[in-house]
């Protein structure tokens, strides 16, 4: 996280302020009544979608009880509630897509059961997000008079709006009250809270934002412009914008009537939130939350921009050519390693999900052919995942985007060579370099990233596309994960990264615990990064006055060799290295680690520990246990060479 004073550039708000005129329709894909469009889809794709819907015929949409909601507050478990919550929505998505493709009414009753089940939920926000002020304790039950707009309340709004958009005529053939029910819920739970209350993710002054800002904003925009509103609501949202007051308030007073729901109000607030989101990004476009959260950050920025640009008839088009936006788009290609693997840090998994239609469209919008190639190649490698994909599967809008771009991506010529460039992201301190067989990442920066782990100075290494030195990732989220006790969790601690333990102490979390004197060299045959890490170890600094601990990491491209060199004045140092494959001792100072051989000087082998992978979330990243090499330093200098 950048500790320098943040300048808030208002490009989105200025663009919104300059728009005068009527809104244009947002029709991102055909409605179900457009039979020619659906009949023209590939036969295998149609069969897949119908089969997924058939598996949900007769699905019993679970009732979410008060005790289910209270469990998070009582014992910290969030997985049980979320399993019920997301299963309902995924089932509804499957049924809607099947009905759109088949269009015989076979799935309609189950779809209506799903819609009414969701509309009957007391609240749409997750228990883990049930609070009104950022970083305050969650309330045990929701207040039905004050809806909380969290990530998944907004996702739910977008889902219902998309369902109504796709099946408007089919719903009305059953009863006009279906759309009335959806509209009432969307007005009460999404649009009015959005325009009459302030939630932290909307942005204010220099308060740090994260993926929530654009993720929620995108879904509010989708809710607004996909929903086939009643005549009264439609007239408000299509009324022309003639003047735009740049000094308009961030939000409107509580209890304002629903007449505030206007195009002007929506554009103003959404545009300003995009500016607040972008203020926390460097011009390099690095996502400090990692590759997995890029799908909820950079790609949701793209989603919000797409809606804004469409409903204003291209008024936001120039922002796609802004270097910062282009760099945000290309980040995902730069942190990709090989096949399913990504360089990961913070709460990101090394298996961050396949790229696909959204990355492809972001590449097209920003004019980056290499990003389009990467997305198409990865989409094909994943066999065009539609239903099983964790990120996109739960969002009906993403699913339908994929359906109607499926053939385009599957037919792309992906025979071209995809190269990963060497890059340093100064805004986060992320150093990424490659040779013929080695892919190396080093994390400088500080310990105040969003979804932070204490990992300043850690390295990640792949050989021939497979992990050698690993970043473990994060366990299943619980109440402790986002609490003052976060760093009691082992995966958050520097001792479980590729970092030293100094005088028996690990790194601390906070912006002041950072890498200093960072120097990078990207050109030539031996790219390198060096830094001083003492500031990240305040407890060790108290034990060793004048503590120094420098680290330099070099990739020697000609020999596909990585050299790590540490120098310190501390007497008590244990070096930790996390490996994917079990290390095998070859001789003193020599190990084999999977495809790689490692040698070290200035330390003695203390232990090779097994790190059992038992957590469900970690099991999705690692198919067996991990290992921790512990070396006891015996000299002021340490050198590790991996080939």
TrEMBL record:
Coiled coil: none annotated. Residues 424-571 form the Heparinase II/III-like C-terminal domain. One of its GO terms (molecular function) is lyase activity. One of its GO terms (cellular component) is cell envelope. It is found in: Cell envelope. InterPro entries: Chondroitin_lyas, Hepar_II_III_C. This is Heparinase II/III-family protein. It comes from Waltera acetigignens.
């Amino acid at each position: 996280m950048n500790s320098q004073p943040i300048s808030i550039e208002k490009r989105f708000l200025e663009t919104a302020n300059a728009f005068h005129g009527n809104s244009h329709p947002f029709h991102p894909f055909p409605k179900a009544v457009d039979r020619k469009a659906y009949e023209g889809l590939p036969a295998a794709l149609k069969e897949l979608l119908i089969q997924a819907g058939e598996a949900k015929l007769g699905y019993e949409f679970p009732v979410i009880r008060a005790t289910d909601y209270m469990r998070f507050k009582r014992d910290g478990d969030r997985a049980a509630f979320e399993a019920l919550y997301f299963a309902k929505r995924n089932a509804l998505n499957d049924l809607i897509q099947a009905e759109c493709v088949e269009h015989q009414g076979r799935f309609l009753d189950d779809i209506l059961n799903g819609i009414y089940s969701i509309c009957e939920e007391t609240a749409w926000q997750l228990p883990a997000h049930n609070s009104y002020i950022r970083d305050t304790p969650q309330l045990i039950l929701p207040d039905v008079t004050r809806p909380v707009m969290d990530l998944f309340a907004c996702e739910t709004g977008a889902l219902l709006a998309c369902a109504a958009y796709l099946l408007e005529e089919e719903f009305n053939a059953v009863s006009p009250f279906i759309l009335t029910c959806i509209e009432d819920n969307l007005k009460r739970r999404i649009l009015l809270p959005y325009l009459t209350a302030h939630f932290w993710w909307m942005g204010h002054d220099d308060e740090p934002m994260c993926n929530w800002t654009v993720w929620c904003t995108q879904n509010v925009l989708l809710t607004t412009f996909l929903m086939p509103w009643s005549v009264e609501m439609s007239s408000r949202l299509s009324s022309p914008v003639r003047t735009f007051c740049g000094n308009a308030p961030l939000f409107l007073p509580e209890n304002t009537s629903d007449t505030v729901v206007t195009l002007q109000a929506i554009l103003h607030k959404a545009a300003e939130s995009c500016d607040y989101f972008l203020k926390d990004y460097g011009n390099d476009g690095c996502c400090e939350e990692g590759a997995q959260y890029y799908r909820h950050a950079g790609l949701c920025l793209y989603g919000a921009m797409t809606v804004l640009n469409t409903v204003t008839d291209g008024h936001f088009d120039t922002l796609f050519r802004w270097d910062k936006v282009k760099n945000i788009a290309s980040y995902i290609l730069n942190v990709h390693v090989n096949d399913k693997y990504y360089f990961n840090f913070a709460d990101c998994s090394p298996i961050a999900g396949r790229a696909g239609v959204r990355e492809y469209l972001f590449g097209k919008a920003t004019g980056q052919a290499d990003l389009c190639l990467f997305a198409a190649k990865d989409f094909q490698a994943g066999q065009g995942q539609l239903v099983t994909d964790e990120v996109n599967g739960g969002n009906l809008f993403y699913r339908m985007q994929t359906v109607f771009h499926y053939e385009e991506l599957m037919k792309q010529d992906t025979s071209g060579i995809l190269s990963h460039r060497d890059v340093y992201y100064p805004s986060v301190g992320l150093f990424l370099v490659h040779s013929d067989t080695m892919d190396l990442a080093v994390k400088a920066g500080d310990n105040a990233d969003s979804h932070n782990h204490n990992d300043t100075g850690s390295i990640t290494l792949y050989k021939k596309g497979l992990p050698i030195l690993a970043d473990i990732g994060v366990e299943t989220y619980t109440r402790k994960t986002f609490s003052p006790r976060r760093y009691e969790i082992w995966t958050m601690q520097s001792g479980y990264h590729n970092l030293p333990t100094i005088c028996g102490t690990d790194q601390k979390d906070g912006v002041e615990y950072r890498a200093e004197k960072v120097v990078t060299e990207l050109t030539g045959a031996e790219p390198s990064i060096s830094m001083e890490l003492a500031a990240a170890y305040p407890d060790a600094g108290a034990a060793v006055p004048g503590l120094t601990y420098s680290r330099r990491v070099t990739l020697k491209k000609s020999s596909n060799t990585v050299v790590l060199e540490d120098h310190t004045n501390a007497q008590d140092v244990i070096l930790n290295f996390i490996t994917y494959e079990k290390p095998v001792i070859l001789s003193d100072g020599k190990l084999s680690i999977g495809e790689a051989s490692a040698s070290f000087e200035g330390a003695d082998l203390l232990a090779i520990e097994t790190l059992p992978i038992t957590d469900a979330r970690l099991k999705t990243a690692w198919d067996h246990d991990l290992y921790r090499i512990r070396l006891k330093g015996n000299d002021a200098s340490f050198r590790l060479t991996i080939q």
